[in-house]
Amino acid sequence: MIVSPVFVIALSSMHSVQIPEEIAFIFIKQGYRRVKVKASFEGKSIEYYAALQKVKGNFILMLNKPNQKKLGIFSNDYFQIQLFEDTSKYGVDMPEELEAVLDSDPDAYEVFESLTLGKKRGLIYAVAAYKTSQTRIDKSLLMADNLKREIRNPKELFKPLR
User: Fold this and answer.
1) C-alpha span between 152 and 146 (Å, rounded)
2) Does pTM top 0.70 for this prediction?
3) Mutual orientation of helices 133-148 and 117-128 as an angle, nearest 10°?
4) Which residue range forms the structural domain that includes residue 69?
5) 77 and 33, same structural domain?
6) Residue 2: inside a domain, yes or no?
7) For the stretch 82-109, what's the b/e string if a residue is b when 16 or more beta carbons lie within 10 angstroms of its beta carbon?
8) How far out from the chain centre does Cα 127 lie?
9) d(Cα 3, Cα 12) in Å, to the nearest integer?
10) pLDDT at 107
């Protein structure tokens, strides 16, 4: 497994960090544009998945406001980051509820697997955003039914038929 050394960094813009080129190349040379990120600050730690993006000659990772808040960091704070090879199937952790629904419905699973990786990640994030397990189950079932009905618009996938 590819793992970077731990390094210290600060936000380079409101929602991103600039990754040193020598660290980004560890992953890019091996064909990994998506990584798992572990960020730590003052005893708090989070893990999330992100894409290494090249913007104006620099490699960046997004670090959204909710994750900044979980860490307790502000724009002038320095914190630690370590990158790991992304070994997940979809580039994000699949909620158990969605996985169970797709495992129990081969037709919905087949449609889900036919989507682009980005679309799959978007749907996984959408289900994961619901707070309770029951809501994640209900929304996963609804999404599975709508996928089988050939509904692909993300705004419509989580709405019941009228």
Assistant:
1) 8
2) yes
3) 140
4) 7-85
5) yes
6) no
7) bbbbbeeebbbebbebbbebbeebeebb
8) 12
9) 22
10) 97
Q: How many CB atoms lie within 10 A of CB 67?
A: 17
Residue 90 maps to a domain = no
Alpha helices in 60-153 (DSSP H): 65-71, 96-104, 106-114, 117-128, 133-148
**Sign of the four-CA dihedral 45, 47, 48, 54:** positive
**CATH code of the domain containing 60:** 2.40.30.100
Tokens of 3: 């793992």
* 126 and 81 within one domain: no
The dihedral over CA atoms of 32, 47, 126, 85, expressed in degrees to the nearest 10, equals 20
What is the C-alpha separation between 46 and 153, in angstroms, rounded?
31
| Number of domains making up the chain | 2
DSSP summary character for residue 3: B
Task: Report the DSSP beta bridge partners of residue 79.
Answer: 9
Tens-digit pLDDT profile for residues 100-120: 999 999 999 999 999 999 999
Per-residue tokens: 21: 């080129």
